[in-house]
Amino acid sequence: METIEKTTDQHWMRKFIPIWSAQIFSLLGSGLVEFALVWWITQKTGSAAMLTTATLVAVLPQVFLAPFAGALVDRWNRRKVMIFADGIIALLTLSLAILFAFDLVQVWHIFVVMFLRAIGGIFHWPAMQASTSLMVPEKHFARVAGINQALRGSLSIIAPPLGALLMSVLKLYQVISIDVITAIIAITPLLFIHIPQPVRTDKGEIVTPKALLKDMAEGFRYMKTWKGLIYLLLIAAVLNFLLGPAGTLSPLMVTKEFNKGVWELSLLDSIVGVGVVVGGLLLGVWGGFKSKIVTSLSGVIGLGFGVLLFGIVPANAFWLAVVAMGVLGFMNPMANGPLQAIMQSRVPAEMQGRVMGVTSSICTAMMPLSMLIAAPVAEFLGLRVWYWLGGALVMVIGLAAFFVPSIRALEEGPSQISAAVVAVD
Description:
It is built from 14 helices and two strands. It has 425 residues and is mainly α. It has one domain (12-424): Up-down Bundle (Growth Hormone, Chain: A). Helix 2 packs parallel to helix 4 (107-135), helix 2 (48-75) packs antiparallel against helix 12 and helix 4 crosses helix 12 (352-381).
């Protein structure tokens, strides 16, 4: 029988809120660094190929290394993983700031740092998510997930203009050095607050490649016992494939279909962030329908509707395109927040790193793959075609999922859980 001793309902906020609040600063610092580096590459090279390369070096570690990172997170102390990941990322940023300060930086330096920062991120994210499930009472999972979505939406609105403002009054190395300060803020509460850890029978065992592969195999075997999770993972991958190009192609939609400029594009980007904030806050207060999967699938249908609406908006009705992007942003936390809550409440604590790593890897891999296909489709059939097909198919998939029994029963967990997990506080 699985038993998990978690932080008590009365005291959970005392531990979780300081850690969670400090992570906000870390996310803001990372957002500033990303904005500053992308802008520098844009100005320095003016090359779309260089910007594409920057995106790839930030994404590839998540595609290929996330399952391995998840397995290690399940073995290691998650508090120490977060401290180490934040610390390494800060040191990498500091090294880049020094290169900028002495005017020694080259484009390849930035690619290397972005690649290594991405590796730090694939350790930090599952460690934080898996720790949340042991620090927060289960009844608050959906609310916390909704607030997290709202927070990320807020940062996507704040970071670019704040970065632009700071770059107008500070030197570039000073701007990216802010990330070092925010990392220190994020690490500080982790030094003093204990996070519950799952107890493993192999605790203290030396991590060898064979042991790591064995852990990953256990994670895959666990997922196979949960048919609903496998189906949902496939659906998530398909949705990422269909929806990924929507954001990437939006600048071309603005200029070629709506005959607008940079301000209208910034308005669309901002309204997506506003929608995410509003949807996340609503989910945080409301908590969603009684059935989390109903909330999530309703959000999926809403995502498809937003994309489809954006694709059919007439060229002279740009305001309706703004509404469509607002719907898309609003539905994002509705689709993702409840699923995150289900994973945190139903996946055993010692498996969460592996399950989240595999999920992240597969879903992220769909985005560059979709762009390889979407670009020629948009070139030969027109930009709107991808939005029509993508939006309509996402709506159909969301509706069809309601009729799959194993997906409807997702909240019940897998058919069998073989490993007993004990978390100590």
